[in-house]
Design a protein that fits this description.
The complex is a heterodimer of chains A (361) and B (422). Chain A is built from 14 helices and four strands. With 361 residues, chain A is mostly helical. Helices cover 61% and strands 0% of the residues of chain B. Chain B is built from 23 helices and no strands. The chains are: A mainly alpha (361), B mainly alpha (422).
Chain lengths: 361, 422
């Protein structure tokens, strides 16, 4: 008996190891011309793991507080061995993760992978996307630089527009009426404790659902394969698909390394609450489509404040987006075409508004 | 004036009696003001006798409750011109130019009276005016010189803090120029009339009018306002040192001070000029068109050598700073964190500024101290920039090696997949 086999037996005896990995051995991935979209979820998960690991390393030196945060990040960037690499990878990986999460969501939408019985997978995924955006919003403030300070000020102000709960929510987020060191401490708490806990639970739920329900097949293909089971093609998850996923992770790692080395994440200028906001201040790119929309809404629409209306509409759209699978047909042969139309419109709108927001002064 | 004082006494009494009395009195005063027969007629008259209600309401005196009668006397409550402009009622008519400073001084030299309106307003204007060239010439019978109303305006006189006031810092030069830039009007006076034209090209005008820096000097800053007079050859340094303190301290240590005094040369003005003062450059120490040293010194003498040393030292530090800036800039545009070096560059620039101030001592040993301090800082910053560039290159080499390693792993994985699937 080899030592590896001994160890496996030892674990099996105590944890029921074989029982745990058995489903993975049986798991298969459908093989068709759109199979490569299946990699996006795994890449997002890989980037999340990178975030956790680099985040833990940053915690060794980062000090939350209005008088220390900027200096500690500056110290990480200049004096800590490979501190620049860890911070730059953390920042780039955060942005790439949000991008791949969006791409994953739209691929699921266009491939109609959210259909029965995968509604809860969609719901947990959309909530995860909101959590990831929360990570981005809270993490952006932590270096306590000018752009982050004013972006947080504008962002929390928009939160304050929500009727009834808006003002208390804004004060809760800020830790007072204004964005101060108290806000930074809170955002740090959200970023390293509350959101990671929530994200871990949701990711486990999401993965469990994916594992339980298997990979979805595009409706047309599902109809064909149901009619003609011999046409069905699939690949073993372990090791065939996982090895390909591993290749995708390596590519992602190379891209991250290149971005971090060639474009180290800028630190900016330390926040000064007493200076006026820089001209043309904008949020991070993933909030830009909402920000630009709010800018375009007139100050008053009928008798409602334009910004309040915008926030309410976005809230409603977010809720409907979450419930989208429940409007879909149960029959793969008769998918609802209007949902695909909505998906095309949403993608065009988000991309168009983001570009417009980026170019607008 | 007497009427006004009586009213104010009544006002004080009303305050003592209480609020009710105050309201009644205020109502009476308000009624009194509505029957100002002076404005009824003068608002319809052409200039120079015309004064409209709209114009007079802009006047700080009107806003403080004074009326036409406060200066001109008479009875503004009467609609009968004979009674309103009766000598018996104290009517003075048009105030003669030579009487204007004295009339204004009636109130503005009375601290107790002025304190009621503005406790911080000075009351020495009349005294100062009498010491000014304007005041002395007026006393000698020259009525062309400026009196209070020429600078402050009349009937629409505004507080100096009002941006549209003729004596607001931004407008003072234009106000002075109305006479001093008018060659025809100034004919007969032995002074030039190009001061305003020169001042308009100066660094001081640039700061005040273009940058809006209200602390920048205008005519009155150097010449005084009510006591306006040329500073005098030996006092120029005192005037400039009010703002340029450190330069003046250095000049005190220099050999130029005694030499200029002995030659009756006006200190700072010798090199920097007066009204048309330009932003100083290191070229002033050179031998080109902007050079000033060689206007007095002989090429090749000891002073000329010192001048060349000073210019060379300044150039050396300036070039060292620019060199470090260039390297730090490239490192920064490559995404390197060089904010500490950037901060250090500010310190090096401070040393250069200090050296340029120390130049006024004309001592090479003192200037050299600042230059050496600046060169040391600039060298450290250059080193920090070069280190950042080396770090950038190291990162790129590291990236290249990592990508090769990743490429090898990817190729290995591909081969392995091919093997298990074949």
């Amino acid at each position: 008996m080899t030592p590896l086999r001994n160890l496996r037996n030892w674990l099996d005896e105590r944890l029921g190891w074989e029982g745990l990995v058995a489903p993975l051995r049986k798991k298969t991935v459908p093989l068709h011309r759109l199979s490569y979209w299946y990699f996006l979820g795994g890449i997002t998960l890989f980037l999340f793991v990178i975030q956790v690991l680099t985040g833990i390393l940053l915690l060794l030196y980062y000090r939350p507080g209005a008088n220390e945060a900027f200096e500690s990040v500056q110290y990480i960037m200049t004096h800590v061995p490979f501190g620049w690499l860890i911070r730059s990878i953390h920042s780039w990986s955060a942005n790439l993760m949000i991008f791949t999460a969006f791409a994953h969501m739209f691929s699921v939408l266009f491939l109609k992978a959210y259909r029965r019985p995968r509604e809860l997978t969609w719901v947990s995924g959309v909530v995860l996307l909101f959590v990831v955006m929360g990570f981005g919003f809270s993490g952006y403030l932590l270096p306590w630089n000018t752009l982050a300070f004013f972006a947080t000020k504008v962002g929390t102000e928009i939160t304050g527009q929500v009727p009834v709960i808006g003002k208390p929510l804004m004060i809760f987020l800020r830790g007072g009426e204004e964005v101060t060191g108290a806000t930074l401490t809170r955002f740090f708490g959200f970023h390293v404790a509350v959101l990671p806990g929530l994200a871990t639970v949701l990711i486990l739920l999401h993965l469990l659902l994916v594992q339980r329900l298997g990979m979805s097949i595009p409706p047309k293909l599902e109809v064909q394969w149901t009619a003609n089971p011999s046409a069905k093609r699939e690949m073993k998850f372990f090791p065939n698909f996982l090895l390909r996923e591993l290749m995708a992770w390596y590519v992602a790692l190379g891209v991250l390394g290149a971005l971090a080395a060639i474009f180290p994440w800028n630190l900016g200028v330390k926040a000064d609450p007493f200076v006026s906001a820089p001209a043309g201040i904008k949020p991070e790119w993933y909030f830009l489509f909402m920000f630009q929309t709010l800018k375009l809404i007139p100050p008053k629409v009928w008798f409602i404040d334009g910004e309040v209306l915008g926030v309410l509409v976005f809230g409603l759209v977010g809720l409907l987006w979450l419930l989208l699978p429940f409007f879909e047909s149960d029959e793969p042969s008769r998918p609802k075409r209007w949902i695909t139309g909505v998906a095309i419109f949403a993608l065009t709108y988000v991309a168009g508004m983001s570009v417009y927001g980026h170019l607008a002064k | 004036m007497a009427i006004l004082r009586n009213r104010l006494r009544l006002f004080s009494a009303a305050r003592d009696v209480g609020l009710a009395g105050f309201i009644v009195l205020a109502a009476c005063l308000a009624y009194g003001q509505t029957t100002n027969s002076c404005l009824d007629c003068h608002s319809a008259l052409p200039d120079p006798l015309g004064v409209t209600q709209e114009k007079f309401s802009q006047d700080i005196h009107a806003q403080k409750g004074l009326t036409c009668a406060s200066c001109h006397g008479g009875d503004p409550t009467s609609d009968d011109p004979d009674k309103a402009m009766s000598r018996k009622a104290g009517w003075k008519g048009k105030i003669e130019r030579k009487q204007i400073p004295q009339l204004c001084g009636t109130c503005h030299s009375d601290p107790a009276y002025i304190r009621q309106f503005n406790p911080s307003l000075r009351t020495d204007q009349l005294g100062q005016y009498r010491t000014s060239v304007h005041g002395k010439r007026l006393a000698a019978g020259d009525t062309k010189v400026a009196v209070c109303t020429d600078c402050h305006s009349v009937h629409d006189l505004r507080a100096p803090s009002d941006p549209s006031s003729t004596v607001n810092p931004v407008n003072v030069a234009n106000t002075c120029a109305r006479c001093h830039a008018d060659a025809g009007y100034m004919k007969g006076y032995p002074i030039p009339t190009d001061q305003f034209a020169k001042y308009s090209t100066s660094v001081h005008h640039q700061a005040l009018a273009v940058r809006g820096d209200l602390s920048a000097p205008t005519c009155t800053t150097c010449h005084g306002n009510h006591g306006a007079a040329p500073p005098g050859v030996d006092k120029v340094q005192n005037v400039c040192s009010n703002c340029h303190t450190f330069q003046a301290q250095m000049y005190e240590k220099s050999s130029h001070k005694e030499a200029f005094l002995a030659a009756s040369l006006p200190g700072c003005v010798v090199c920097h000029s007066n009204h048309g003062i330009r932003h100083p450059t290191d070229a002033m120490l050179g031998t080109g068109p902007d050079a000033v040293c060689m206007q007095c010194h002989t090429p090749g003498d000891a002073c000329d050598q010192a001048r060349a040393e000073l210019q060379s030292a300044l150039r050396q530090l300036d070039e060292a700073i620019k060199g470090a800036d260039q390297v730090i800039g490239v490192a920064e545009s490559s995404g390197m964190e060089v904010s500490e070096a950037r901060l250090g560059q500010d310190q090096a620039r401070d040393s250069l500024t200090k050296a340029r101030v120390t130049i006024h001592s004309f001592r090479t040993d003192l200037v050299d101290q600042d230059i050496q301090a600046g060169l040391k800082i600039a060298a450290q910053n250059l080193q920090a920039g070069q280190k950042a560039m080396a770090e950038r290159n190291y990162r790129r080499v590291g990236l290249g090696m990592s990508l090769i390693a990743i490429g090898i792993v990817l190729a290995g994985l591909r081969l392995y997949i091919k093997k298990i699937e074949s």
